[in-house]
Amino acid sequence: MMPSPLGRYEEILSGSLPARYLLARSVKVELQESLPLPERWALHDRMMQDLREAIGRSDAPRIVSPNLMDLKVSIARDLVRECSLCEHRCGTDRYLSRGRCGVTDSRISSQFVHMGEEEPLVPSYTVFFSGCNLKCVFCQNYDISTCPEAGLIIPSREMALQMSRLARPFGAEPRSRSPGDIRNVNWVGGDPTPNLPYIMEVLSRSDANIAQVWNSNMYLTEHAMSLLEGCIDIYLTDLKFGNDACAMRLSGAPCYMRTATRNHLMAAAQGEVIVRHLMLPGHLHCCTLPVVEWLAENMPGAAVNIMAQYRPAHQAWRYQELRDAVPRGDHRKVLEIARTKGLALI
């Protein structure tokens, strides 16, 4: 029998393993805020070795201070001063002005128990951030992604308290499927990438044993991915396109394939992954089939959700091929090909 693609996550749900970020909070560091950023990165890399050795431990982690999460927060805050969280690398000091994403203070558009995610994830406590680092013309959540100034500013300490109220103690009974017994905290948007420092601050202040889901377009830098290691239990990713031309035309994302594929491989090395691909009308051969081929060759152990629920939204009407629905026959064909190639479809 093939091992579950979400095996460690399932053990967090059962209460037998801690969420990764709690392990990061158990790694002691000698943190000095005055250390130059390169030296903090070097310290981070050394301390990550200790964390990787702790990942398989089943005993309750003992939180120490200062710890690896505190170091991650310190680095994340500095990355925003000349912003290099996403691959646009706009270099804006986002404490003083808006970068390409438009996000300054992290704003929460909505937060609720979501019952519509993939089956292993629900019930999922989903936090929707306003603003996004991509400009997808077909965005289904354009009211959120294009309005970074909308929503509420919720202090990170308050969000951490909310997480603690939702969670069960380490070693508690397995979680159920009732809406009142959530299985994870799901950071989404928009996109969570511009809000990475805020998320790190929340985790640095929480002691809740609850799995963390990074629900993202994955258009972020290697530095941002390095900070996420040891914090995220499941990467719920979008692999939107199969080539750079479509990514640039429809999402304004230069060097998309290099960035997205690199980050998917990093995610698979760091934790567990559910890859989403939303089929677009007219993009079967240029995008969907190349995505399936790449996943089969490079991430055969990942759980994959190939979706056909596209509907024209936002600016899609400007693009002739995006005005239609995805033909049902195309979706059936792709699922058959994906199964033939051994992908773990969910």
Give a concise summary.
The protein has helices at residues 7-14, 20-24, 37-54, 68-79, 142-145, 156-166, 196-204, 222-228, 244-251, 256-270, 284-298, 328-340, and strands spanning 108-114, 124-129, 184-188, 211-216, 234-238, 272-278, 303-307, 344-345. It has 346 residues and is of the alpha/beta class. It has one domain (7-91, 107-345): Aldolase class I (TIM Barrel, Alpha-Beta Barrel), CATH 3.20.20.70.
Kindly list the characteristics that best describe this protein.
346 residues; alpha/beta; 36% helix
Question: What order do the helices and strands come in, and which of them pair?
Answer:
Blueprint: H1 7-14, H2 20-24, H3 37-54, H4 68-79, E1 108-114, E2 124-129, H5 142-145, H6 156-166, E3 184-188, H7 196-204, E4 211-216, H8 222-228, E5 234-238, H9 244-251, H10 256-270, E6 272-278, H11 284-298, E7 303-307, H12 328-340, E8 344-345
Parallel strand pairs: 2-3, 3-4, 4-5, 5-6, 6-7, 7-8
Antiparallel strand pairs: 1-2
Helix pairs in contact: 3-4, 4-7, 6-7, 11-12
How would you portray this structure in words?
There is one protein chain. By secondary structure, the chain is of the alpha/beta class. The chain has one domain (7-91, 107-345): Aldolase class I (TIM Barrel). 36% of the residues lie in helices and 12% in strands. The chain contains 12 helices and 8 strands. It has an 8-stranded mixed beta sheet with strand order 1-2-3-4-5-6-7-8. Helix 3 packs antiparallel against helix 4. The longest helix is centred in the N-terminal third of the chain and has 18 residues, at 37-54. The chain is globular and about 55 Å long. The mean pLDDT is 95.
